Amino acid sequence: MDTTNRIRSKDESKIPLIEYCLYARKSSEDDERQAMSIDSQLKEMNDLAIRDGLFIKEIRRESHSAKMSGQRPVFNQLLNDIRVGMFTGILTWAPDRLSRNAGDLGMLVDLMDQGKIQQIKTFSQNFSNNPNEKFLLMILCSQAKLENDQKGLNVKRGIRAKCELGWRPGMTPLGYYNRAFGGKKDVVIDPDRGHIITEMYMKVAEQGAHGRGIKKWLDEVGFTTRTGKKVTLSSIYLMLKNSFYYGKFEYPVGSGNWYKGSYPPLITKEVFDKVQKNLIVPKKSKWGSKDLTYRRIFKCFSCGSGIVGEERSRYRKYREPRDHIYYHCSRQKDYDCEELYISEESLTKSLFRYINFMYMAHPQVLNLTEDIRRGMESYRKIRDQVLLHQDIDPDSKSMDLRDYARYALKDGAMEEKRQLIQLFNNQLYIKDKAVISKT
To answer: Full-prediction pTM beyond 0.85?
Structure first.
């Protein structure tokens, strides 16, 4: 070997070996005819590496869109590994496999500027750390971003065109179904559900039916969703407020863009407006804002639902209306629960009878908390002062828990009444207008 050949061999041995990471990506947005699958990418690039004698240190694959910057976990980890020197090159099918956004592209170019990436090699091109090749890389990735943005605009334009033709994108509501025939699609009335939706609207419009009554009726006639499940109460109210049924729809919801449907309506606009009027609840105090004494304390013995309270006014012919507070089962677990209403006065009396019984029969289970002890002491002082004014020796009058309970339930503050229920470590229930426990 002559001197020239020996020098050339010596110089070539000093060229650093590029350690490639083979990166393959498949996005769910890609059309199968336009983007190769991950397995196809890996096969083609492996063959290229064997042909050109490239060293692939590791293979990484990812199924994720590159539309947004910094959203691909595998790609982000690849960049971090390049920063610490684990790889010095990237092998991939095409530039758009690496980036379709300016953020990720900027990080790739920055790593090339720092000398961290010596080469990005695709099936048909090489990009090294020189101005022309980096500029070409930026153009190709920017073109991929442009195509991606144009795709989004085309989709939105297609959706608007479909809406203007009277067809709302997406699944139709119950009462209709999408039909496809002869390469065309349209919306037709569901023969099993359409007439029931119409009757539901008429019940609310003409008979003033309420949501729970409608649900009970729908369950009785066997009305179900497309998956065979019973419709929920919230779904019923959503259906009753859906303008799609009289032939108009808003898309997107909340945008203010309304379109006239090209499908047969199930109801008229007049019926829909009448239903909306009947669904309006008269303004009252905010639900739960009035703090009733025994709110969220008792449960229904029959079905296990919570006991709720409400204030009602009884109108009298010659006097001012009289307010009453009633407690009843919320019927959350059983709409047909037959547990009766009980007034707050009757509930208070029943609670005292229960405390009196427990004090006599099972005094060991009563939990005299510090709050109750302070309440009893305060009541004792008040009672003693009253007895002294009546020239009665307080020591001659014994006092126990029942005396304090009688006072607190009748004249005590709301907090004192609630504290009495803390005497019991178990849940209290209402059954047949009486306070009981299950133990």
So the answer is: no
